[in-house]
Amino acid sequence: MKLTKIxxxxxxxxxxxxxxxxxxxxxxxxxxxxxARDADSALYLFGTLHIRRPDEAWGGPAxxxxxxxxxEVWTELEISPGGDAQAQTLALQYGLAPPEQxxxxxxxxxxNTRIKAFARANGxxxxxxxxxxxxxxxxxxxxxxxxxxxxxxxxxxxRLIDGxxxxxxxxxxxxxxxxxxxxxxxxxxxxxxxELVLQAIDEAENGGALMExxxxxxxxxxxxxxxxxxVDDMRAQYPEAYDVLLARRNAAWTPVLVRELESSGVDFVxxxxxxxxxxxxxxxxxxxxGYAVERVE
Length: 297
What we know:
297 residues; alpha/beta; 14 helices; single chain
């Protein structure tokens, strides 16, 4: 699977912007925001990027206003120092390879030479990488070039939203535990996981401007591009990963959102942008249940 997409969506959810689609959306200046309403409740849906450059606004005036109105704020998982520490512990638990099956055992000599060279070029010790399972190594190799280009996992839109909401005293909610999310990533194994490592390197070597174009598409709310190149592409080329990373999780989250709409009040939901889009996305799921879901301009 396109590893950048996994990492940034959740991991990930991004795409290349085609010139025609980007031109159609060029007038938009803010990431997309949706709202579902009934008689006594409103549910705002905001698609995030999990890794961004620091010191950039996470959303436009409409999203800021929606967050201010909300009494409860939802993210994919708990965002806190304790939650981060737990996630790191679990990543080691599920991501370290057994001594008898190091990362290098999955690859040919030529492939291992390439992996080691890429790791060194991006500041990673190949010996440390060799102790990782393929899914963990793939994420590491995908993120390192982004960090070198100035992107910061701690500047993700969801983290900024969480910090702003927490400071305002809002009730914080989340859909998954750290263990659930790590186990989802760890379930990607076998040949698919092996391909992730090689494609992480391919994307980094051949897509120097990829992250810039992804971020621009997200920033301008270019949903046509996001769906076509992230969601539709993943579903067509990697149906198993699409099912694990997007479809199943969206199906698990939808009843939670319906329950919130059946109660009263205002909720703000911040999840990876890919979770909102396509026929299995949260927007389509709520519409299928009879809710009017509109984009907030």
